[in-house]
Structure formats: structure tokens, C-alpha cells
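pinned: reference chain
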Amino acid sequence: GRGFIEGMWVGILAAVLNLLLVASLLKSDLAGGEWWIAGILFGCVLVGGFGGAVGGLMRPVLATGAWVSIFAWVAVGVTFFMIVTGGIVTGFQAGLAVPDWPASFGHNMLLYPLTEMVSDFDTGIYFEHAHRLTGMFVGVTSIVLLAVLLRFDRRNWSKLLGALILLLVITQGILGGLRVTDLNIGMAIIHGVLAQVILALMAAVAIVTSRRWLIRSEQDPPDASRVECTFAEVLVLTLLVQLAIGAAYRHLVTDLGAKDGASMGLLMGHITMAVIVTVVTVVVGLQSLQRRGSLKPVGILLLTLVVVQLLLGVGSLVAVMLADPAGGTPQVSLGEVFVTSAHQANGALLLMTATVAALLMRRRLEHTEAPAAESSD
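pinned: its C-alpha cells
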């Protein structure tokens, strides 16, 4: 009963926040606005109460602190969704569909009429405004994540990591707005890469707040070497370089329709780095695959993602090279947007997984060296 009542209060808070969305519906002159308000209030309170009741039953499990890691993974999911919507915006060349910021055609971003948002999908307004709203979700989630770390995590460095994530999310929002108002393609490239860095950092928070990280487990034996840790860290660095080159090439071709020497040079660099990334990923993946515990599924995921990334990369190359940008803005096909956006999103997952592998390797190395240090003392 206590959990149900606490969940109802959470539902009421969620309902109040959701009324902002209802306000945009009312501004759109849609019929039945009062039923939307009543439905959201009742639905949020009911669902919140049910969630609280389930949480009350799981209280012994949640008391271990694992829920902090679970919430961090929720933050990862929200951020990944934002990356997907951003890739779709770039694919449909809709980055400038809404010409002002932080307003949307003079409206408060949250109160922009939904009927105008969905009136014509060819304008790209729907995709650009949806991306702005998902960015807002990431901002709110980052604030809550920092608050959770400040309240429930005793380690100062993890709190600083949460603060860094929030700072980067704020920077990401500003870069996205300046990219619209200043029409700066350089900001667009940084904006795309920074989102993937934020995703990797949120995954890092999820790992370092997990029970397996906090409590040494027999399932995760101290069996890592410095060489393996170095390979995992090099993989993260090479992926960052690869993603930056890929973002620069995609924006040059998509935003400017350019297939000149600069873009072709970036393409050749991207292909060359793809070979290096593939080799290092396979090495780290096989190393992880040979380990027991949490590293084994990470190794499987790394090897799977790199194969998918190669296939999507070939598909993206074919789709972009076949597009004809002559004569103004080309008509972008749905297939091209899908394959290029999937390539970008999968690259973000690959960077995230590589970061997780590097952290787990480093943790095992610390456990490996700890007994030796204690015996020498």
C-alpha cells in the first residue's frame, strides 16, 4: 500500500509535466482536449501507483543499490533514441527545417502546435522538432541522473562523472541551437560526435554503479593483462576518430551535397580507419570472449556490432554514391535515410560497448594487481 501511494505521487508529477504536451494539443484546436487532460491525469496516477506497488515488492532487491545502475541504463536508452532521431534529421536534410532556436517558429518549444508539426512531412519540421523534444528528454534525464549520484553514490569521481555528463548535454543543446542560427557545419559535426560520447559516458555510469563493479564477484575473476587493457582503450580512441571522420563526411555530402576532393578524402580516411577499427575490435572481442563473467557477452556484442557496422557501411556507401545531388537539394529516399542512420546509430552502440569493455578490463586488471601489491607490502 505504501508503494502504491508513493507511486501515485510520482504519477501526479508525471501528469503535470505531460500537461505541457496537452497544452500543445489544445493550441492546435483539437477537439476533446478536456478528455486528454482527464485521461493523462488518471492514466499517470494509475500507472505510477502500479509501478510503486511493484517497487514495494522488489524493495529487498532495490535496496542493494542496483537500481542506480538500472536508471543509468534507462538514461542510455533515452540518449540512444536521441541519436537515432538526430541521424534521421541529418538523413532527411531537415536540420534547418525549424529556422529559430530555442523557440520553434516563435512558439515555446513545448507548446509548438502538433497540427503544424505533422501538417507536411516533406518540410522536415516533424523530424527536426521531434529531435529537439528528445534532446529535452535527455536533458531532464541527465539532471535526475546527477541528483541520484549525488544522493546515493559515495564516490566523488562518480559524482563528477555525472556532472560532466550534464555539462556535455547542456553543451550539446547549445551546439544544436547554434548550428541552426549560425548555419555552421563545423558545429553540426561536433554536435553529432558529442552525442555518441555522452552515450558512452552514460553507459560508463551504468557499469560503475552495478553490483559487479562494486562487489568483487567470483564470476569476474582477476584475469586481465595490461596489454588487453591497452587494446581496449585504443579501440575506444580509434572509434572516436572514426566517428568524427564519418560525421564530417556525412554532413559534407548531406548538408552541402558536395562530392569534391575534401569529401572524397574524408571518405578514403573513413574506409582506412574502418579497417583499423575492425582489426582492433576483433582482437578485443576475442579477448573478451575468452573471459568468464560479464566480459564474455560484451565480446559477443562487440563482434556482432562490428560485422553489422561493416555491412551498414557498405550499404551507406552505395546509397550515398548513387544519390545525385546535382541541381539543388536532392530527393532523399527512405532507404538511404534508413541505412545511413542505422550505420550512425550502430557506430554509437559500438563505441558504447567498447567503453564498457575497456572499463571491465581495467577493473579486472586492478583486481589482478591488488594481491601482488598487498603481498609485496
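why pinned: Residues 257 and 329 are 7 Å apart (CA to CA). The two ends are 54 Å apart (CA to CA).
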